[in-house]
UniProtKB/TrEMBL annotation:
CDD domains: PKD. The keyword Nucleus does not apply. InterPro entries: FN3_sf, Ig-like_fold, PKD_dom, PKD_dom_sf, T9SS_type_B. Keywords: Signal. The keyword Signal applies. Residues 136-175 form the PKD domain. It comes from the Bacteria. Residues 1-21 form the signal peptide. This is Gliding motility-associated C-terminal domain-containing protein.
Amino acid sequence: MNRLRYLLTICFILWAAAAWAQDDRCIAALDAAGNELQVLCVGQEVTIKDCYDKADDDKEYYVFDYKGGAIPSPSTTNKKHTYTAPGRYKVLQIANYGSNTSTDTISKVFEVKAVPEPVFTFQSCANGAVSFSVSNPEYDVYTYDFGDGQTQETDGKTTITHTYSSQGSFTVTLTGRYKGNACSNASSQTVSTLPLLDEENPTQLVKVSVLEQSANGSIQLELAGLVPGYSYTVEQFTGDVRQPYIQIGEIQGFSSSTLTQTIQNVNTTDGTWYLVRPVDACGKVFINSNIVSGISLNVQPAEEQVELNWEFSPDFQSFEVYRNGTLLQTLRGNATSFTDTEVTCGQTYSYYVVGTGTDPQGDRYTSVSATLDAEIISTVVPAAPFLLSSYNLSNQVELTVQLPDGQQASAVVIERSINGAQYQQLTQSQQTSILDESINRQPACYRATFTNICGITAPVSNISCPVLLSAEQQTDGSIALNWSDYAGFPDGVGKYTVELLDENATVVASYPATSQSFTDQTRSDELPVLRYRIRATSQNGRGISFSNLVEIEQSALAYIPSAFTPNGDGLNDVFEIKGKFFTGYTLQVYNRSGNVVYEGTEADAAWDGTQNGRELPAGAYAYILTLKTSFGTTKQRTGTITLLR
């Protein structure tokens, strides 16, 4: 190192005098095989050397990316280097030449180029022809290996075409390299030649559907027999002999032989022919598909009927007329109109027509018109509605108005009569189901009418009177039930049924009734509250109406002992309350002085004859028992209990 510093010092002192033999000094970049390189590549290891070996290897130093300024003092004689990024790099040599120990520096700028993977695109055309283009022409020279034993060199700036002698898939490799350097990069793709088109079995236009009928409408095509790799033009018949068909769309980039394609901005006001033609990437046009006509539909509503007319170009074998997606009629292929009389005022119906035919190859094709709506007008008075009334479990009357088939209401009016008084309007709305929450268990009858969306009011409905039930507990404990007759079923009431419900509104027992009264002798020894209602069933069994719900509270049954003996023998050791038909209780026990010695509920331990852990003396103690019923009321019992020891 000291010697190197000495040499460098001498170099700067003698810089002006060190011009001898400059023309014989140079540096070169060599590859691994020792070949001199004019262009360097990223990732390539090169050796930098004195061109003429005038400097000894151990006195030859290099700075591989010299930026100018002060001369650095390299510490190694390494002459190999690999550049990792493209650009222009100045290589500085610091060397001792000759026996006179003169030290000198020379430099050379090398261009380092990137070696990207070459990118190419291709287009397959008919008859085995494939055109190739380089997408990133950075190399000086490109070589295609077409995968069939043939190669071709190109500058990468022009498109070349190669013709394969057989059909199939081939691995094409493109190699790019720079002049003056052996480094290169390559990429490969699988290239498939286009299959041959079978002109005896051309593409089939299976279905033409007009999605929107207008001057800027749209159509949908269903196709079969497509050949991937080709594009297809969609064409419409013009009727002009100078240009019979015009292109209205293009289909490309598909991978299946079948396809559904929508074409926008098409004049679909007339029923005219459509076809598709295959075209390869080189612009060659082949035999077209079968020809299918679109259908132009006109829908005109009249008095309770709809008139349909349609236009088309031959040939169809039959037509099908659909309303709201349901087939109405099948007609011959020469039909052009249909009248629908099975319609209802105020309703909106959707119509479309489907034509079917057979192409020259014997394949069936279909054409579907656009779907058009028609709102029906009428002056016919609709039939009366049917009204059903029934109590719910909250003792509200549920009123349901059933409109005649096909009718819609713009307004429904329900009237009510209480205790036979004149009918008064209860509600007016578009709803066909309402609640009468203000009836308060009074005998009531209802009737209804409606105005349809054509503005015509129907006659008044049937009179509907829900069953009104009353119940009373007899002195013998039985429950006497009485109810009014139900009015409103067209065929009358077929039967009445008494239903007993629990607190969850589940029917736990039912009894048939032959009249409008019933006495429940059995009662239930499990339900603290007896809940009764009447179910009225029509003669045909399809109509059901319920009465109001009546609740009868059963008397609380509490077993209270007269004495207890807290002697630990397991028998009658505590004063406890047992029974049913109550939800809870509070028990207070008093001594002779009137002081509370025990107070507890059903959740506490029973009284064991102690107070604060101290045994109380035997004798009589007074108590007050307060029971809580399921209705939320309280009932009180008093008496004495004898403590025995």
